[in-house]
Request: fold
Amino acid sequence: MLEIKDLHVQFHTSDHEAVRGIDLTVRDGEILGLVGESGSGKTVTAMMIAGLLGEDRARISGQILLDGTDLLHAGGKELRRRQGKDIGVVFQDPMSAMNPVMRIGPQVEESLRVHTRLSKEQRRTMALQALEDVELEDVEAVYRKYPHELSGGMLQRVMIAAAIISGPRLLLADEPTTALDVTIQAQILELLRRLNRQRQMSVLFISHNLQVVRKLCSRVAVMEQGRIVEQGQTDQVFFHPQQPYTQRLIAAIPTRRKIHG
Amino acid sequence: MKERNGYLWVGITITCIMTILALVGLFWTPYDPSAMDSMQVYLPPSLAHLFGTDNFGRDVFSRAMKGLATTYVVSLGTVALGAGVGILVGALTGYFGGAVDRVLMRINDAVSAFPSILLALVIISLLDFGKYNVILALGVAFIPSYARVVRSEFARHRDMNYVIAARLMGAGHGRIMFSHILPNTRAVVVPALIIGINNAVLAESSLSYLGIGVRSPDVSLGYMLSESQNYMGSAPWYVLCTGGCIVLLILGLGLLGEGLQQKRR
Reply:
């Protein structure tokens, strides 16, 4: 459903490319992990898909196709329609991604307000449903709260609710669990997996945490210095890494044996 | 936030008293503020005439109430105009940056290069006297300061994550500017509004004192102050009470603004 073809991105402020010709396909209903160290170009790739980078900040070439429509060459309106409706985005730090002076409810409804003509009541019903879908309790109360009244884990659930409310076909999750502690992290991953299954929603999961990716994703792509050096089924990549870079990454995962051994 | 904020409460108290006096003054005063009585000139303050009477035997307290109301109308009007346009200009320049920013802010600089009283003087001499023209003149002079404050706030918020998130969900520029960012600037804008009202009171008083502000039969505190100085020897209470009203008004609003800023920290 999402197809990236020969994407190059070079920031105007830099003299080398941040993304150097990547080809990547996200299939219907799969969870694809995109891993790599800091600066490998994962986030730039995500920003490109989300439409956050334009010609004003970087030199861009290649294609990003969503169901055959090229997002890079679609005009502003087309892109606006895609954003939020077909692609939902979840950020790393939920606290900073919420508007501090707006109540939770309106923020969850934001994309409905923009993309649909539903009445206030209908939007509210859908927002409450979305908050329930992300397994929050007492959603009526959450709906009326301000972001600072919720914990980080709850806020990340709220962010996910806001991202899925208009039924996107692709969820772009850029390090969604990095800012959370480990138990909450596991819950959020479980939630993503369930949403993926129930809604047949593809997920592009970006992370530097290989263990998390291994647990969650069906396929993995490994990025290094702006290139995708290896991609394939998760087990394939983890048990039989072909590239030296992937081998080094996997060898760097701490295991119980190494700690005691 | 439990600790007592002395500035805020004293400010609110004084401002409330002055506001009530002004509101009542719009509809009712103890005496007709323009009724002259040749038998009652230069009466010192008493229970019958709280602030005494002036050279025409008019009740100074009634006139002060009326003047307070005019001063309020003019100051609020000035701030509404100045802040309204200023916020719009600041939002556009701060949010979009680039060419919009350069053009609008240079115009802004040009306007703010004139001392506000001088600018108001020019506009009034082009338009004529009267309180509505005073509002217009001072309002224009007040635009740049708001534009500047709001611009820097918008520039700061423009690339914050919550704004990016809203943009990703497909919110348009207008919606992002006024529904998402503007409410976040209130901690800076609200004190600026209070200080603005304060400055407007002073500016209106200065203009009326100089004789280019409101004109009879309207009275304002500044207008009364300029009248009263001629009778400083024979009716010192006139100038003291009028000046005292201005001081209290400014003090109340000043403390209120200061209190609000402290609350923010």
User: Anything to note?
Assistant: The first helix of chain B runs from residue 6 to 27. The interface with chain A takes residues 160-162, 164-172, 175, 180, 183-184, 186 of chain B (CB under 8 Å). Chain B has one domain: 6-23+33-264.
